[in-house]
Amino acid sequence: MTSASHLFYQTRLRRPLVDRAEGIYLYDRNGKKVIDGSSGAMVANIGHGNRHVIEAMKAQLERVSFAYRLHFENEPAEELARRAAGYMPDGMDKVFFVSGGSEAVESCLKLARQYAVAVGQGSRWKVISRFPSYHGSTLGALAVTGYAALTDPFTPMMQEMPKIVAPTAYLDRDNFSMEERGIRYADKLEEKIIEEGPESVLAFIMEPIGGASTGALVAPDSYYPRIRDICDRHSILLIHDEVMSGAGRTGKFLGGDHWNCQPDLIALSKGFGAGYSPLGAMIAPSRLVQPVLDAGGFMHGYTYAGNPLACAAGLAVLDEIERLGLVENAAVMGELLKAELVKLSERFPFIGDVRGKGLLLAAEFVVDRQTMKPLPKELNAFQRVVDIAYDKGLIIYSRRTRGGIEGDHFLVCPPMIITPEEIGEVVSILDDTLLQLA
Ligand code: PLP
């Protein structure tokens, strides 16, 4: 791609042209084969080129690819809503389709607000979120995102929402047990609610298992029920952003399922369409939806929402997740890959922490494990590790940022179809990559 291209994305950085993809592999135009070790941006969960999905999409295209929802209902949307609701916690029985993660989060924020207005709680509008966190790029989703580099340019254009510090795994050097830490992290939410004025707080949004912004950070077990309890005591809605952690990636269908969480709203995307179609959803209980509909309707919606082609893709993706037992495979392969990453961390002391669940895994770089200090920014480790791995035939995903301090981490999140042999390939390339990085 030359600089004469009319296309642009976030940075000046340009990547090779992709040619084709199959299973866990992508091929560029020069014939180079690379393992999709991050499933793109944790999207291609069922792998590339899945025949069942392709055939289902073709068949839908032949029938009808688009019929506007204000003119027609369509079967794929109806059926996908029914199937998706079956994976949700009790009572989460209403599904609102969107085309991506930011739209799913926006929808949660807006339904929460309209619900509050509908039930006479119009004073509630603030949405507390965590730092660091990522909830999307549109102004509403950005307002609840804890990632200064992304939010700063837009602060004057949006009402930035209050943040609490997300639980940190190893950085806290104190005498508290993990159990106690979970409670203490959660209690920061209550402190913030009180500081803001409980009557003004509408919702709390969190990724049950952190994504790219934290590097697959998992809170202590005690954190999750405590958060639910705090939200209940202050009548605050709990929104789980499962955009990255959902659709089976962590070894359960939802990240929150590891703790039997009962959020009030769920945002889903990425692995839900698995890269075959832009697709996402907000899932809500009738008790929140009905008052909004009764009060005149949900003042929100997207042109492409619930279109038959996207929903046919989503249905076929769910078929494959079930037929191939991919949620279970993500759990088993995740254990295997994590154990291998831990072994790598024993060989490379600049890996300070390996964390995550299922196939949402990350490793964090530090100067050494004694100090746990992050690598200096100038080393640009997060970019170098990605470039070296790509040269050697592996795509990984990396970021520099972390709660309270700066740090580099990389995520290894291959498609959920991965086999033990393919994990061996991933680990061997990672080993070479880290050797070169050292
Ligand atoms: N929420 C989370 C947790 C995400 O990881 C992302 C994307 O990375 C989003 C929301 C936004 O999704 P999208 O980029 O599809 O709008």
Automatic annotation (TrEMBL):
InterPro entries: Aminotrans_3, Aminotrans_3_PPA_site, PyrdxlP-dep_Trfase, PyrdxlP-dep_Trfase_major, PyrdxlP-dep_Trfase_small. Its cofactor is pyridoxal 5'-phosphate. Keywords: Aminotransferase, Pyridoxal phosphate, Transferase. GO terms for molecular function: transaminase activity. Belongs to the class-III pyridoxal-phosphate-dependent aminotransferase family. The keyword Transferase applies. This is Adenosylmethionine-8-amino-7-oxononanoate aminotransferase. The keyword Nucleotide-binding does not apply. PROSITE patterns: AA_TRANSFER_CLASS_3. CDD domains: OAT_like.
